[in-house]
């Protein structure tokens, strides 16, 4: 089932920054075309797209950017249409866009309250639209494309060590990553029947703008107490293994495989009786203090009551 990425085409949502940008860069340097689907590109992502928009090296792929709001299904369909019109076949799909319990759509800031932008009558949480609904819909579109072309394909999701744990400050985020891990495992049979491999990485603490540019999120960490970062590049290499290999240092790779990535370590996450994340790059020792702060804020009269 494994195949080389050279000469192939990928769609990556959220490719404008972080892990997804690192993976897009890795694919491009290995000869794979990449459609960057995101609301916008950070300067470092824009530089990559510009560099590979007209690749002079025959061993490199081509990069194109398609502005995409992943909560809009028509825009998800459009990114497939654009990639198919330009390259014909799409071989690799990464529904990578995600957010980490933002104040504007969080359990601790209910719809209609001051910091939330989820409308009180909206009947949904935008964070879950991004972290759960969008990856599911993109997977449906990818599977339909692979089946239509009667070709093998690889879909790589971004789960997290949060998909094996609970965390008081981020209940919606953790729920979303538990959902993604279970979703990926539920599609394992597609590989044997249709040569469509659905897998995921489960990163630990990865040093990306999602963390470093959010003072609120950084409160969860305590580098002074030994918390350590892994890098987006480490995750990108694990994602490449999920596509190109049937076996890696961590073990056998098949549909439904989830690879946990920490600092200088990668391991297979077992479906049952897994020991849980361990080792460097997985611990956030500031979480208990943050959790207490949240509970203190809830003790004030009026928590969860919508603004007038």
TrEMBL record:
Q: Is Oxidoreductase one of the keywords?
A: yes
Signal sequence residues: none
Record key words, sorted: NADP, Oxidoreductase
Q: Which InterPro entries match?
A: NAD(P)-bd_dom_sf, Sc_DH/Rdtase_CS, SDR_fam
Q: Which family does it belong to?
A: Belongs to the short-chain dehydrogenases/reductases (SDR) family.
Task: Write down the PANTHER family for this protein, in alphabetical order.
Answer: 15-HYDROXYPROSTAGLANDIN DEHYDROGENASE [NAD(+)]
Protein name (record) = NAD-dependent 15-hydroxyprostaglandin dehydrogenase
Tell me the organism.
Oidiodendron maius (strain Zn)
What lineage is on file? Eukaryota, Fungi, Dikarya, Ascomycota, Pezizomycotina
């Amino acid at each position: 089932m494994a195949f080389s990425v050279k000469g192939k085409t990928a769609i990556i949502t959220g490719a404008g920054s972080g892990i997804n940008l690192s993976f897009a860069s890795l694919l491009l340097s290995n000869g794979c075309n990449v459609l960057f689907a995101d609301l916008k590109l950070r300067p470092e992502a824009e530089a990559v797209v510009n560099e590979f928009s007209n690749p002079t090296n025959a061993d490199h792929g081509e990069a194109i950017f398609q502005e995409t709001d992943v909560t809009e299904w028509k825009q998800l369909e459009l990114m497939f249409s654009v990639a198919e019109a330009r390259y014909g076949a799409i071989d690799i799909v990464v529904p990578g866009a995600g957010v980490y319990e933002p104040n504007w759509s969080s359990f601790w800031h209910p719809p209609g309250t001051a910091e939330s932008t989820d409308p009180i009558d909206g009947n949904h949480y935008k964070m879950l639209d991004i972290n759960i609904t969008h990856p599911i819909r993109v997977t449906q579109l990818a599977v339909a494309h692979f089946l239509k072309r009667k070709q093998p394909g690889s879909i790589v999701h971004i789960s997290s060590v949060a998909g094996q744990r609970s965390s008081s400050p981020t209940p919606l985020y953790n729920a979303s990553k538990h959902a993604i891990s279970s979703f990926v495992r539920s599609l394992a049979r597609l590989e044997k029947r249709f040569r469509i491999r659905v897998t995921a990485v489960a990163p630990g603490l990865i040093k990306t703008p999602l963390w470093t540019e959010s003072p609120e999120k950084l409160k969860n960490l305590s580098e002074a107490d030994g918390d350590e970062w892994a890098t987006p590049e480490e995750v990108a290499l694990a994602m490449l293994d999920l596509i190109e290999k049937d076996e890696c240092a961590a073990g056998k790779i098949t549909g439904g495989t989830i690879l946990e990535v920490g600092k200088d370590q990668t391991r297979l996450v077992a479906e049952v009786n897994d020991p849980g994340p361990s080792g460097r790059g997985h611990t956030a020792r500031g979480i208990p203090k943050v959790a207490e702060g949240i509970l203190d804020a809830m003790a004030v009269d009026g928590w969860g009551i919508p603004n007038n």
